[in-house]
Design brief:
Helix content: 25-40%
Number of domains: 2
Shape: elongated
Number of strands: 4
Radius of gyration: 26 Å
Structural class: alpha/beta
Order of helices and strands: HHHEHEHEE
Largest sheet: 4 strands, parallel
Strand order of the largest sheet: 1-2-3-4
Distance between the termini: 99 Å
Strand content: 15-25%
């Protein structure tokens, strides 16, 4: 049976094709993200934060601009989720609302973690008690320019 089988020559190394990835300048990306924030489109901002590592800081700046806590319900979750201050998005928080239930003082736990909120400008302490007080040995972050206490 005189048929001959020839082997196809397979290249030993295949050079990868370099894909050209178009890059959008960061300032244009920031403008788009600012527009989403102006429209209060937090869902889209959260989705954009997953697109690229370079988009995360701009998205976090808007997502964490204003934060609402109910003490003691959900503030502990924040501190447990972000135990390392350097990795916390707390430095993006500019406006912080704390609804305090059942006590008439700012929680000591917040004051221990308050240095994480380096960009905090406005702090609102709201609750069901009149006459909130701050422990005398603790201070608010130095960046706070406005403190509102009310019910």
């Amino acid at each position: 049976m005189g048929s001959e089988i020839s082997e196809a020559k397979v290249p030993t190394s295949v050079e990868p094709k370099t894909a050209i990835t178009p890059r959008i300048p960061q300032d244009i990306t920031d403008e788009i993200l600012d527009h989403l924030a102006a429209d209060s489109d937090l869902g889209s901002l959260r989705a954009c934060a997953l697109v690229s590592k370079s988009w995360i800081p701009s998205c976090q700046q808007h997502i964490f601009h204003t934060v609402d806590f109910t003490w003691p319900k959900n503030m502990d979750r924040w501190f447990n989720t972000f135990p390392v201050p350097e990795e916390s998005p707390a430095h993006h928080v500019r406006v912080l609302y704390i609804l305090i239930e059942g006590v008439s003082w700012l929680p000591e736990e917040f004051l221990e973690h308050s240095p994480q909120f380096t960009g905090l400008r406005r702090l609102f302490l709201l609750g069901d008690s009149m006459g909130f007080r701050l422990p005398s040995h603790r201070r608010l972050p130095e960046s706070v320019t406005s403190l509102t206490i009310g019910t």
